[in-house]
Amino acid sequence: MEEKSEQLHQNIAHLSDLLHSGQDEAFVTSFNALHDFEMGQVYSGLPEQLRAVAWRLLDNETLATVFDNIDVDDEDIDDLLQEMPPQKAVQILRNMYADNEVDLLQEMPTRLVATYLSLMPKDEAEDIRKLINYEEQTAGSLMSIEYLAVEADLRVDEVMRLVKQQALEAEAINYVYVLDKQERLVGVISLRDLLTHPDDMLVSEITKDRIISVKAGDDQQDVAQIVADYNFISIPVTDDNDRLLGVITVDDIVDVIDEEAVEDYSGLAAVNVSQTDDTAWHSAIKRIPWLIALLLLGMSTATLISSFDGLVRKASILAVFISLITGTAGNAGTQALALAVRRLAVGSNNSAVKNFLSEILAGFLVGTATGFSVFLIVTFWKHNYQLGLAVGIAMAIAIMVANLAGYLIPVLIDKLGMDPAVASGPFITTLSDLTSVLIYFNIAQLFISHFTGA
Amino acid sequence: MEEKSEQLHQNIAHLSDLLHSGQDEAFVTSFNALHDFEMGQVYSGLPEQLRAVAWRLLDNETLATVFDNIDVDDEDIDDLLQEMPPQKAVQILRNMYADNEVDLLQEMPTRLVATYLSLMPKDEAEDIRKLINYEEQTAGSLMSIEYLAVEADLRVDEVMRLVKQQALEAEAINYVYVLDKQERLVGVISLRDLLTHPDDMLVSEITKDRIISVKAGDDQQDVAQIVADYNFISIPVTDDNDRLLGVITVDDIVDVIDEEAVEDYSGLAAVNVSQTDDTAWHSAIKRIPWLIALLLLGMSTATLISSFDGLVRKASILAVFISLITGTAGNAGTQALALAVRRLAVGSNNSAVKNFLSEILAGFLVGTATGFSVFLIVTFWKHNYQLGLAVGIAMAIAIMVANLAGYLIPVLIDKLGMDPAVASGPFITTLSDLTSVLIYFNIAQLFISHFTGA
């Protein structure tokens, strides 16, 4: 990775030098030799005053490629566009792929978006406005509207001619979509089939009519799952009347899978891990609110223990096992949580009731095995099987409860229509601290006359 | 998801009926109308005695598509192949993409692999043997050897003719690779450029010579990062002398990203989440070893508390804050761990020393803020600022230590050449329980004469 960033710095330094020394043509040539992704990195890495020269030298298509390849989450991409007069910015926007254009506009102040749209041809502005209105994390928000579409009654060579004409515009050229008179999607032709069949064949013979498509409102995670399963390079998006609205390409799906994984992982850790090069200060600011919130939840456990002060005074040995029971139950809860979140993400072949019963049984098995282990350990360690019994039973029940909570909380969050990944591991462990202590002290109270010998 | 699986059951039932009622031709037609991915699902879903009919009816190419589309991790794919005589199995293997063929062979007993290879043409067997020898999780293990390659001095129409000839074999047709006489990769031509330039143009004019490629030994995670960044549909793999060995296609990269995300997530939760439809029994068996291992680690904390029994007897109030301090420090450690694992996965633009110092500082800020909060809470709750001070200071130091451990452990694991994702959240929290208790009781000992008023 450091290698990559060194290469980037070299590129930026080299291109800056060319601009500084007035070698405009050499700059344009060198810049155009970069890979698309590098163009984005280099452009946003140039000092502002050099960017002001650069965008005057580069053509609109190149600049569109630059902006197509800057991640809206990573950089202040909207600032980069605002460095130019609106007329220029609009030329660039119009040359971008619609999905990236929309992502970029969504980062901008509403007033500015209105200005840009007012400078576009009316029908184009209308298309963009529609795309902006799709909810985030839906298929509609991911799709581009630059696809290849034809009618059914053409020959291979005629379709190939259309493909050649439109290939520069289209974001994905691997599939050509067949539409009927009402713009409904009725078939898909693969470019591979077009290339390997005779020119005079009717494309209807190589058109697949069993189409896998998604609706504009579908969740991006479900779309990603389909593309991953079917090994698609792109997937068509339709409205409720099967009219083709756009296509989602696999590069956007790769981003979705990454984004969802980071979300799940962040949730489990109770810290947003999407930025890895934060300053210490920013990093701390991200972590502290979670820790303080969990601290306050943890205070309820402290209060509970405090209310059992009499019991602890009678048997100080009870203090020894607090962290063992809360810790182990917390670990069990985290496991159940992770399994539940993952199952919600990838889907399950079983009914909800079956999953629930299965989890109860798994929790029972896990709790019993672990409780029995701790019973043996404590009995032999403290030569006191009544104490071992109290700790073992408390451990078993605490694990079953934590396990159930770890399973139920993400399921309930999902039912409420939210992302179950927000249910974090630390939240579960802190919550299960409370239930574990409650179970532990109540059971200890039942057994205390036995194990203290009082 | 349930919808999808219902569709699958319908497909299986329908195709089974056709076989049962002897409608062989209808079966073949219906089966061939399925999407590639569905073929794999349906075939492995048929009852064994019907599969024995099915493979006799379907041609080798279709069967190769079936096996190309069954996930080796999900199903007993090797058993499916062993249902056929070796001669038939080899015909299918030879029609599969080499990367999938190798994945499949790697699931098989060595003796059987030798049999299959002995039934192939010598050069083909040699190619496959080479691929089998690449280490898992490297670029070499992901690549397929069916790519499009040409020499530099051809015209567009000549290359297009070669593309058309080879399009059925190649796994990815979006790029054509240009090789020199020594088979070294010297350029890449995109199919899009071939389609949009005149037939009589020399391809050297549309060949990109700034090639992004990977080496066969590169880690799959690094390859995935490059493909994701550059939005590639495939990436070439070369040996140390820049000779082209194969290509990796984006569908395999999607699987890698998913696999790595599941690994990271499983690590953080201390449970393998890759199977979501386990039975309760299997699910419990997966969780119990981790819980017992962590329980044993947790016993060291219990032993430590036990050694402070005298202190707890003097001030039972100390028991109240054990779970608060261990819990909060554990949460902080989990956050640091998650950030460190993620940073190792995506790479960092900063030096290791800078990251280390930054994490120390972040831990200091987090610890101070949280310690101060708990000082205020305890002081007001128990009207005892000395107690508040003891708990607050202990909390601050415990967090800093847990934070540092959470950061250092994955970094050290990475330095040892292992996947840092094995460092689990529960391991960190259980370990930090020990250090937190040690810090807490030592500090409490210093303060005890003050806050007990003794």
Description:
- Chains A, B: Belongs to the SLC41A transporter family.
- Chains A, B: Its main location: membrane.
- Chains A, B: InterPro entries: CBS_dom, CBS_dom_sf, Mg_transptr_MgtE_intracell_dom, MgtE_N_sf, MgtE_transporter, SLC41_membr_dom, SLC41_membr_dom_sf.
- Chain A has 454 residues and is mostly helical.
- Chain A folds into three domains: 132 residues, MgtE N-terminal fold, CATH 1.25.60.10; 101 residues, CBS-domain; 172 residues, SLC41 divalent cation transporters, integral membrane domain (Tetracycline Repressor, domain 2).
- Helices cover 67% and strands 6% of the residues of chain A.
- Chain A has 22 helices and six strands.
- In chain A, the strands form two sheets. Chain A has a three-stranded mixed sheet. In chain A, strands 4-5-6 form a three-stranded mixed sheet.
- Chain A is elongated and about 90 Å long.
